[in-house]
Design goal:
Distance between the termini: 25 Å
Mean pLDDT: 95
Number of strands: 11
Helix content: 25-40%
Order of helices and strands: EHHHHEHEHEHEEEHEHEHEHEHH
Shape: globular
Bound molecules: zinc ion
Radius of gyration: 18 Å
Structural class: alpha/beta
Strand content: 5-15%
Low-confidence stretches: none
Length: 362
Amino acid sequence: MTDIIIDGHQDIAWNHFNHGRNFTRSAWATRRRETGSAVAQVYGPCMVGLPDAILGRIAVMCATIFVPPASSKMVPTDRLVYATSDEAYRLGTQQIDYYHRLAGENDRIDLILNRADLDAVLATWAPGTDFADHRLGLVLLMEGADPILEPAQVEEWHARGLRIIGPAWTATRYSGGTKALGPLTDLGRALLEVMASFGMVLDLSHMAPEACLEALDRYEGPVFAGHANPLRFCPDLVDRNLSDDVIRRIAERDGVVGIMPYNLFLVPGWKRGDRKDAATMNTVIAAIDHVCQITGSARHVGIGSDFDGGFGAESTPAGFDTVADLWAIGPALRARGYASEDVSAILSGNLLRILRAGLPGG
Ligand SMILES: [Zn+2]
């Protein structure tokens, strides 16, 4: 079967609400509309649209419910920030409703709520199908759990379709995070317990190392780091990239690390405005290969592009212009000597294993 791709992280709703982007347009159509705009200046050239995703053979994306706290300096111009948990809840709810609408109004987009939904999407990519048949499935992932008012409310979110939770972005009421180190809180420990009772996937991305290690010990359900790179490549990013120790622990739990083709997390000292080609496809392959080398197999690595997650094409390695270009990772892995079945595992199989484990049967 020709390879398909599973993308472990896409902030589709945030791009819709915060930037006014229409996901059903191609990235280039969005770029044309944004020529000279503040959004293009702050967030760079758009990389993600439904047509690009289908062209790039992306069958499934983990689509985020993401709202940043007002206190964060990581999002300079944003209107959609929260100061209280009630505001976080309201904004998060808007985003989950948006995904239901998006899927309801577009016959190329399906919300994946259970394993049967996943299989139905994958069937549209099976041998013998062609471009007109393919559909994109979205699995809903919350990045930063503050919209969940209290752990017991996981039940309500799960009923609305949420299947993956990353407790942290920067710190939340649940966990220390990026640029705000700290442990899991008692509320965070309670959250993990409720998540496990629903068999949800725990996303370790952005969790501060201390919180991440405790969560790996505690959490009984499936785990992954949907968008995160090895710390080895940018040793200063201790609050964002993953140490070899954490990567090995994720592998011990049969988890997966979704590699981000993002220069800031791949090239030490790189900053926005520096050269795009400071990283290349080789850099991305080296990050994938590193996870394979230290875990001893190709079973624990995938792709979590996070394209349009606060940056655009200017900040991704040479050769990556839109999300459609993720396909090129497959041939590059083959050229590096990876066997076909390992390439498939990296592009799709590994993340599919995690998603399947976190989806209700039937
Ligand atoms: Zn993120």
